[in-house]
Amino acid sequence: MSPSTKTTKTTKVSSQDAAGHSTNDNTGLFFILPAVVWILLFTIFPLLYAVFTSFWSFRFGQRNQFIWFDNYQRLFTDQNIRWALFITILFVIITVGVQMLLGFGLALFFNREIKGKNIFRALMTLPLFATPVAVGYLGITLYYESNGPINLFITSLGGTGRPWLSNPTWAPIAVMLIDIWQWTPFVFLVSLAGLQGLPQDLYEAAEVDGGSGWTLFRHITLPLMAPTLWLILLLRVVEAFKVFDIPTSLTLGGPGRATEVYSLFTYRTALRFFDHGYAAVQGFLLLVIVMVIVTLLYGRIRALYEMPR
Amino acid sequence: MRKKKPLSLAGKIVVGIVIIVALLWVLFPFYWAFLNSIKKPADTFQPTWIPYLQFTPTWEHWKAELAIPEIRRALINSTLIGVGAASLAVPLGTLAAYALARFRFRRFDNGSLTTWFLSQRVMPPVLFVIPFFLLMRQVGLLDSVFALILLNATFILPFPVIILSQMFRELPLELEDAAMVDGASRFQAFSQIALPLVVPGIVATWIICLAFSWNEFLFALALTSKDAIPMPVIIAGAEHTRGVQFWFVGVRVLLTMLPPTILALLAQRYIVRGLTLGAVKG
Question: How confident is the model at residue B247 (pLDDT cuts 50, 70, 90)?
Fold first, then answer.
C-alpha cells in the first residue's frame, strides 16, 4: 500500500486502512487485541497445560509421577486406540462420502426454477441446527427393534428388521445414518449456493455450440465447482473427525466397542479412568491427524482458488 | 440461476417425487418426536400417524416433563449458556472483524491472522477436555454455567470474526472516510457508520453462535455434574438404564432441539455464509 508510512521499528504494528490511508496509530490493535487475547488465554494456555499433563502418570485423578514420554509410547501398543482410530476413519470416509454425493446431487437437481424452492431450502436447514445429542437420543426410538418406525418401514417393504443398536455390525451403520441425515443438507445448501453463483454466459455459449448436458457438467460445472466442493469436503472432514455426540447418546460407544469413536475413547480415558496424562497424548495425536489432513486439503483449495479462470 | 427449458409433465412428476422424498427424510424425525410426545403410552407401538383421527392426543407428558425441576433448571442453564456465550463472542468478534477489514497489520499479515482465527475450529475439542477439567477444578469452576459460557464463547469466536469481516469489507469505504475527514475518530466512524450497516449480519451471527453453544455437548458433559447441567447433558444416555419411555424422549428431544432450529430459520439468509465461515456466500 502507501510507502509513505514507513515507520520506525519501535512501532510494533503500524496500521493503514484498506484504502491505503495511513492512520499511523495503534487503533487497529485496539480493535483486534481483545479477541486475540481472549483466544490465547483460553486455548494456548490450556494447550500448554495439556503438554505438561502429558508427561505425568495419574493415580486417583491426581498427578503421580513424571514419566517423560511413557504416555506417548503407549500409543503404539494400545489395541483400543487403534480400533477407535479405525472406526473413526471409517466413519469419516463413509459419512462424508455419502453426504457429498447426496448433497451435491440434490443441489444439481434443484439448480433450476422450482416453485417453493425457498421454503424447501429453509426446511433443509432444520437438521443442521438440531442438537446432535438429541437426534442420537431420538435415534434410540427410531431404531427400536420391535415396531420401531425404521424396522416397520423395512418390513412393510418386505424386508426383515435389523438389530440396529444391539449388533456390532449394524450399530456403526445406525450412527452413520444419523450423521448423514444431519449433514447432507449442509453439502446441499452450500453447493446450491455455489451453483447459483456460476457465470451463465458460459453455459449459453456452450449450448450454442451444441454441448449436451453431460458435456456441460463435465467441462463447465465440475471444474468451476471444484474449489467449493473441496472446501465443503475440508469442512466436513474436520467436523466428522470430531464426532462424539451421536455415538455417545445413541449407542454409548457400544455394543462392546463397536461405536467407540476416537473422541469418545479419549473422553473415557480422561474422565472415566482418570488417566489424564494419556488422554492428553491421545488428544494431541488427533490434533496432528486433523492438522495433516487440513494442510493437504487446504493447499489443494488454495491452488484451485488462485487458478486463473 | 440457470434458465432451463420448461419441464415436461413427466419431468414435473419426477421433481415432485424427489421433493416429497427429501422432505419426508428431513422432517420425519421431528414429526416422530412430536407424535411420541402426544401419544398415550398405550398407543406408542401402534403404527398410527395422525392425531385425533387415529388416536387421541394428550399433553400430559409435556406438562409432566415441564414440571420436573431438573428439566426447568436445564432449560434455564442452556438459555444462559447460549445467550451468554453469543453475547460475549459477537462483540469481541465484531471488533476484530472490523480490524481485519480496515487495518493492515505489519507484524502478521491479515491473511495469517484470518487463518489463525479459522484454525481455532480445527482443534479437536476433546483435546481441551482434560486441561479445562483440571484447570476448572483448580479454580473451583466445575459445575458452573459461567465456565461453560467462557468456553463456548472461545470456540464460537471465529464465526463472528470471519463472517463480519467480510461484511465490513463489502461496505463502501467512502462513508467512513468522509466522516473521518469531518473530524470523526476511527472509533466513531466504526460505531456510528459501519456498525449500523451490518446490524442484520450481527443479529444473524449472534443467532448462529447461540444455536451452536446451545447444542454443545462435550464440554457440558465433562464440566457439569448437577447445578449447571444443560439440556443436551440431561437427555444423553438416561434411557439406557431406565428403558425407553418414548413419550418422554419425544418431549425432551423437542425441548432441546426446537429452540436452536427455530432460531436458525430466522437467520436463513446468512446460514451458508455462517457454516462455511464466510467462504461461500448464500
Answer: confident
Mean pLDDT of chain A: 84
Q: Which residues make up the CATH 1.10.3720.10 domain(s) of chain B? A: 67-275
Top-level class of domain B67-275:
mainly alpha
The DSSP 8-state label assigned to residue A114 in this structure reads -
Alpha-carbon distances, residue A145 vs A63, A161, A170, A258, B126 (angstroms): 45, 7, 12, 18, 32
Position with higher pLDDT, B278 vs B61: B61
CB contact under 8 A, B276 and A231: yes
CB B129 within 8 A of CB B118: no
Length of chain A: 309
Nearby residues of A114 by Cβ (< 8 Å), 6 or more positions away? A120, B15, B19
- Inspect the interface and report whether the beta carbons of A279 and B235 lie closer than 8 Å: no
Second-level CATH architecture of A86-259: Orthogonal Bundle (1.10)
As a whole number, mean pLDDT of residues B107-134 equals 85
Contact between chains at B30 and A32 (C-beta distance less than 8 A): no
Closest residue of chain B to A189, computed from CA coordinates: B272
Three-class secondary structure of residue B103 per DSSP:
strand
Q: Do A267 and B218 touch (CB under 8 A)?
A: yes
Name the more confident of B242 and A228.
A228
Which of A35, A263, A276 lies at the smallest CB-CB distance from B96?
A: A35
**Residue A63, H or E segment:** strand A62-66
pLDDT computed for residue B104 by the predictor: 82
Phi/psi for A17 (5° steps) reads -85, 170
On whether ipTM exceeds 0.85, the answer is yes
Q: Are A74 and A278 in contact (CB under 8 A)?
A: yes
B107 contacts A134? CB cut-off 8 A: no
Given this model, what pLDDT does residue A5 score?
A: 40
CA–CA distance, B256 with B247 (Å, rounded to integer): 14
Within 13 Å of residue B152, how many CA atoms lie on the same side as its CB?
34
Rounded CA separation A270/B104 (Å): 43
Determine the pLDDT at residue A78: 87
Quote the pLDDT of residue A308. Answer: 45
Question: Given an 8 Å threshold on Cβ–Cβ distance, is B3 in contact with A113?
Answer: yes
Out of B106, B215, B280, whose CB is closest to A193?
B280
Mean of per-residue pLDDT scores for chain B: 86
CA of A73 vs chain B CAs: smallest distance (Å) = 18
- What residues of chain A lie within 8 A of the CB of B237, using their CB? 248-249, 252
Q: Are strands A56-59 and A62-66 parallel, antiparallel or unpaired?
A: antiparallel
Kindly state the cell numbers that stand for B202.
450481527
Enumerate the residues of chain B whose CB falls inside 8 A of the CB of residue A64. Answer: none
Instruction: Judge whether B261 and B192 are in contact, CB under 8 Å.
Output: no
